[in-house]
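Work Package 3 (structural annotation) set out to generate three-dimensional models for the target panel prioritized at the project kickoff. During this period the team completed the workflow that converts sequence records into discrete structure tokens, so that structures can be stored uniformly alongside our sequence database. As a representative example, we reproduce one entry of 320 residues exactly as it appears in the project archive.
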Amino acid sequence: MTLVLTCGEPAGIGPELAAAAWAALRAERAFLWIGDPAHLPSGTPWRKATPETAAAVMPEALPVLPRDFGAPRLPGQPQEMHARHVVDAIAEAVALVQAGRATALCTLPIHKEALMIGADFTYPGHTEYLAALAGTDRAVMMLACDALKVVPATIHIPVAEVPRALTARLLTDTILITHAALIRDFGIPRPRIAVAGLNPHAGEGGKIGREEQDLMIPTLDALRAEGLDIRGPLSADTMFHPEARARYDAAVCAYHDQALIPIKTIDFSGGVNVTLGLPFVRTSPDHGTAFDIAGKGLADPTSTLAALRLAAHMAAARAG
């Protein structure tokens, strides 16, 4: 079972994470890194490979599908000429997975501003670009660790726009995609999904906002009528302590920070970003490029290791 790992932004900690992941997983599972080997930390053993040969290479060296990015890596300083190669590496990795040559995709962090400047990248992030490559209308972002799985219904938009963006259609699609993924990718036959209200105290019966009464309750009732095990809308401030988490398999939240604050508090280093709703498995470490520590040997591979392991687990679940 060979995973494919994309390089991410070369000026960030991606190359260091790839090398650290190889050192930690070389005897456990194979992955193929797509990137410029000149960007790897000095002394990293690597060897040219394909998805078919990566497993044989893995014990002795990092398997690399080498690409010439045309300029050396400058830690902390993104270069315009790297941008197109970063985007192409993602597209190439998706093609390998879709062709069945690799079992799952794990992506290292990109820097969206650098891609916008250097490659006219028009997508808000990885999730939307992967959905476009897959020809999928709607993809959903999940953050997962051993203790919690959370899904924000709205993602990278201003908080002031959330009430308008949180429609019945969006909430329904988000819950249905999450429900299907919990069954297919996580092996949970009857998922229990908790849904957080938008307002404090889930609106308190309409006294602190009407979104729960007018939108969320009718939407959740309709899904419950279809047989889904849905709890909510619940007050978000009481959803994430240990006893509450034991009562559900995943939490769907109204907006970005409502979902990400609890998981990053519970497991800051071990969280994994998972894209649901794609025809292939995709995970990513739940952190950014970390320009401030790039090239200093300080990168923590914990989230990358968790992302690679979860990708393998999800791919195995899909395979049956």
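The longest strand covers residues 30-35.
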